[in-house]
Amino acid sequence: MTERSITAVIVGAGHSGLAMSARLTARGVDHVIFERGEIAQSWRSERWDSLHLLTPNWQTGLPGYDYDGTDPDGYLSMPEVVSRISSYAQIIDAPVRAHTAVTKVTPTDEGYRVETDDGVWQARHVIVASGTARRPNLPAAAAAIPAEVRQITPLSYRNPDQLGAGGVLVVGASASGAQLADEIARSGRRVVVSSGELVRMPRVYRGRDVFWWMDRAGVLDERYDEMDDIVRARHVPSPQLVGSKARRDLDLGTLQELGVEIVGKLGMVRDGTALFSGGLANVARLADLKEERLLDRFDEWAKEHGDITEAPYRPDPVTVPARPRLSLDLVREGIETVVWATGFAPDYSWLDVDTFDRKGRIVHDGGVGRAHGLYTLGTSLLRRRRSTYLSGAAADTEDLARHLVSALALAH
After folding, report:
1. Is the separation of the CB atoms in 57 and 243 below 8 Å?
2. Coil, strand or helix: which one is 403?
3. CA pair distance 400, 391, nearest whole angstrom
């Protein structure tokens, strides 16, 4: 089989891969992007119907492509995200080979051999931008759920109409779990939420979106190499927020107002009974304390810059049951569906490179891989806190493209 040579291969044509393409094109680096499906495939096929971005529209800029629409303070729906990313690919004339899956990447003396279902390439550099939400991260308890109880994840959930009329246990209370619990409860179904660690923040604080504050106060620009424990920081749950026209709050308190029952973290399922931790009150209090510290930081910034007219305030603490239930017999108590909002894991089965830690995560230093010539993009807190969100790709790709070009120069 004839091998084609190229300087760089980008795996994945989502917003991160396309942003990297724009940076490489600007530097004259020849490259190709392989995408298993369509451009923005995961945004097209792995999101529920009502989902909107957590970040406001003004924060959806990509290199050379700032938001210029009429609703800067709104939140893009998934079809709008797909349209925006697809338009970006056309504007930058990205060299995307759609419906081309990368099946294997192996090291060579010259870089990497990249095998696809449409030929083989030799590349000096490989940029992994295939996304982190390729498969659900299910706990061991999933295997013990009774057969008559349906199990779904945010990757397969679309709307409440696909659920039966029975009760729903949502495991996980970060952004995805809270949003799904909210939507399902509003459909009239009984909902129980099992909450582990969580991050709480108001949608709007002192008249501004919380992301406005995090941007201005420098929270989003905190770097990965400034973190005391970067591994833990990269696995902190996403904040309990929802992007909606009403700009409403979403947390354990607002869920309880809808009639949702809140219980502690799921420990195990034994003989059809889910067993929960008794530490729910501590979890809620810790979230309140972290929120207070964040708002203190916003107030300090406002005091220094002096252009915020609304007075500071503090959201009421979340009140949870002092003695939440510790067990739930799923079948006997009418739980018909379990929704696993317990996070995701990437699929790197095609990456045959010595670059993983013992948990199967790519080892990297701010996106620069342990394996020479390998880069990764699009993961949480890759180089700074804003890396977690769509607009973070702009700064991350600028840094990594500069590193890649420097590596090329040194090689000559």
Report:
1. no
2. helix
3. 15
CA–CA separation, 215 and 200 (whole Å): 17
pLDDT digits (tens, 9 = 90+) for 287-320: 999 999 999 999 999 999 987 879 999 999 999 9
Check: CB of residue 60 under 8 Å from CB of residue 37. no
pLDDT tens for 183-231 read 999 999 999 999 999 999 999 999 999 999 999 999 999 999 999 999 9
Distances (CA, A) of 266 to 192, 261, 276: 11, 14, 4
Q: Mapped to the 3 state alphabet, what secondary structure does 138-158 carry? A: CCHHHHHCCCCCEEECCCCCC
Answer whether 206's CB lies under 8 Å from 311's CB.
yes
Q: Return the H-helix or E-strand segment holding 337.
A: strand 335-340
CB 254 within 8 A of CB 202: no
Global pTM reads 0.94
Cα–Cα distance for residue pair 254/201, rounded to 1 Å: 12
Q: In 3D, which of 260, 398, 408, 265 has the Cα closest to residue 326?
A: 265
Pair 370, 363: CB distance under 8 Å? yes
Alpha helices in 207-328, H assignment, sequence order: 210-216, 230-233, 252-257, 280-305
Q: How far is 23 from 251, CA to CA, in rounded Å?
A: 38
Q: What is the DSSP string of 64-119?
A: TB---SS-TTS--BHHHHHHHHHHHHHHTT--EETT--EEEEEEETTEEEEEETTE
CA proximity to 266, closest of 324, 319, 190: 324
Residue 114: name the closest of 346, 377, 350, 347 by CA.
350
3-class DSSP state of 341: coil
Other C-beta atoms within 10 Å of 246: how many?
A: 7
* 361, amino acid identity: R
List the strands of the sheet with 273-276, edge to edge.
266-270, 273-276, 327-329
Residue in the block written with tokens 């806190």? 385
Residue recorded with tokens 């009421």: 316
